[in-house]
């Protein structure tokens, strides 16, 4: 008989930015299959999700992956939060996604900052003042330019061992800032994988005495903020071969600026300023290969006969990928397409 450690992971009710919670359940000879992961419960009054007089909330397993970082046999169990009657809790963003057939594919580019809790600055920043201006840090190599690579590599390896579909990593524009990319066919699965990768990143940093700062503007001034660019497509965008259809989809986003910004992360006004490869938070634009636009049309899409995907560059690094995907799907479905579509 093998004692298996199942780490149940969920999102709490803290606002404006939810954080991860988890607790361990021991099971005998767990198969690793989602259908064998049991419902569980927790005290919602301790996570800003319930009152003390009615505190029990349910954890519904939605994805199970191996947990390579755990001694012995371990699994991570991503969960949705349900009310005691089995209905989705109001903090359950995953339940709002209208993608039952998995037609929407998402690739999220998760930026983050390795954070020194002693200096309260990005890893690599001097205790007093600032490092040299940004420019040499993006995709860099070498001491003084790429800091924390050992932590980033450890996180990457753990994610791959866990079966998460990480497609790449790179050092970002600000010193101490990094990025990983995850792609999945199906919006819910993409969100599950980002949250599980964040969990593993937080745990890796914890092991090294560091923190992960997901704030979208961790250092004020002339420093790039952190985003979570959302690359997305559905069968129409992957096959249409029509510039007209792509423009119709992009145009559907313009009247919905508020609906998107409301779920694209807290304090995003500090990041979406029109500078540092962003469009202003109250404006909307799209363009081919334009990193200063709200939505970038990748050159790949154009060169492949208008068959591919789009990139919404507005989501912040602290945004909930479930809510980001939910808003994008709703807008794409609302597009007024030309009759030829």
TrEMBL record:
<dbReference type="GO" id="GO:0005737">
    <property type="term" value="C:cytoplasm"/>
</dbReference>
<dbReference type="InterPro" id="IPR008147">
    <property type="entry name" value="Gln_synt_N"/>
</dbReference>
<dbReference type="Pfam" id="PF03951">
    <property type="entry name" value="Gln-synt_N"/>
</dbReference>
<keyword id="KW-0436">Ligase</keyword>
<dbReference type="Pfam" id="PF00120">
    <property type="entry name" value="Gln-synt_C"/>
</dbReference>
<dbReference type="InterPro" id="IPR036651">
    <property type="entry name" value="Gln_synt_N_sf"/>
</dbReference>
<keyword id="KW-0963">Cytoplasm</keyword>
<comment type="similarity">
    <text>Belongs to the glutamine synthetase family.</text>
</comment>
<protein>
    <recommendedName>
        <fullName>Glutamine synthetase</fullName>
        <ecNumber>6.3.1.2</ecNumber>
    </recommendedName>
</protein>
<dbReference type="InterPro" id="IPR014746">
    <property type="entry name" value="Gln_synth/guanido_kin_cat_dom"/>
</dbReference>
<dbReference type="InterPro" id="IPR050292">
    <property type="entry name" value="Glutamine_Synthetase"/>
</dbReference>
<comment type="function">
    <text>Catalyzes the ATP-dependent biosynthesis of glutamine from glutamate and ammonia.</text>
</comment>
<dbReference type="InterPro" id="IPR027303">
    <property type="entry name" value="Gln_synth_gly_rich_site"/>
</dbReference>
<keyword id="KW-0067">ATP-binding</keyword>
<dbReference type="GO" id="GO:0006542">
    <property type="term" value="P:glutamine biosynthetic process"/>
</dbReference>
<dbReference type="InterPro" id="IPR027302">
    <property type="entry name" value="Gln_synth_N_conserv_site"/>
</dbReference>
<keyword id="KW-0547">Nucleotide-binding</keyword>
<dbReference type="GO" id="GO:0004356">
    <property type="term" value="F:glutamine synthetase activity"/>
</dbReference>
<feature type="domain" description="GS catalytic">
    <location>
        <begin position="88"/>
        <end position="341"/>
    </location>
</feature>
<dbReference type="GO" id="GO:0005524">
    <property type="term" value="F:ATP binding"/>
</dbReference>
<feature type="domain" description="GS beta-grasp">
    <location>
        <begin position="4"/>
        <end position="86"/>
    </location>
</feature>
<dbReference type="InterPro" id="IPR008146">
    <property type="entry name" value="Gln_synth_cat_dom"/>
</dbReference>
<comment type="subunit">
    <text>Homooctamer and homotetramer.</text>
</comment>
């Amino acid at each position: 008989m093998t004692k298996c450690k199942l780490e149940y992971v969920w999102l709490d009710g803290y606002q404006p930015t939810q954080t991860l919670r988890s607790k361990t359940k021991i099971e005998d000879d767990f198969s690793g299959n989602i259908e064998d992961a049991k419902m569980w419960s927790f005290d919602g009054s301790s996570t800003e999700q319930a009152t003390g007089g009615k505190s029990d909330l349910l954890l519904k397993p939605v994805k199970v992956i191996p947990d390579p970082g755990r001694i012995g046999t371990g699994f991570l169990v991503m969960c949705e939060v349900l009310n005691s009657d089995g209905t989705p809790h109001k903090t359950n963003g995953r339940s709002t996604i209208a993608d039952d057939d998995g037609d929407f594919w998402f690739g999220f580019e998760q930026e983050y900052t390795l954070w020194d809790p002693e200096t309260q600055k990005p890893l690599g920043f001097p205790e007093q003042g600032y490092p040299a201006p940004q420019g040499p840090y993006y995709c860099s190599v070498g001491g003084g330019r790429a800091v924390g690579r050992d932590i980033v590599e450890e996180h990457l390896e753990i994610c791959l061992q866990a079966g998460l579909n990480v497609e790449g990593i790179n050092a970002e524009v600000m010193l101490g800032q990094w990025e990983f990319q995850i792609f999945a066919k199906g919006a819910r699965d993409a969100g599950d994988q980002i949250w599980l990768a964040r969990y593993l990143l937080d745990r890796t940093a914890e092991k090294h005495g560091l923190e992960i700062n997901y704030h979208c503007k961790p250092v004020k001034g002339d420093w790039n903020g952190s985003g979570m660019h959302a690359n997305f497509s559905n069968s129409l965008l992957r096959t249409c071969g029509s510039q007209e259809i792509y423009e119709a989809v992009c145009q559907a986003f313009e009247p919905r600026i508020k609906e998107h910004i409301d779920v694209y992360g807290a304090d995003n006004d500090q990041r979406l300023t029109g500078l540092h490869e962003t469009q202003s938070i109250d404006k909307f634009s799209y363009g081919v290969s334009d990193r200063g636009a709200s939505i970038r049309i990748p050159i790949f899409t154009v060169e492949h006969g208008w068959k591919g995907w789009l990139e919404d560059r507005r989501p912040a690094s602290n945004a909930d990928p479930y809510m980001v995907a939910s808003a994008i799907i709703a807008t794409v479905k609302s597009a007024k397409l030309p009759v030829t579509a």
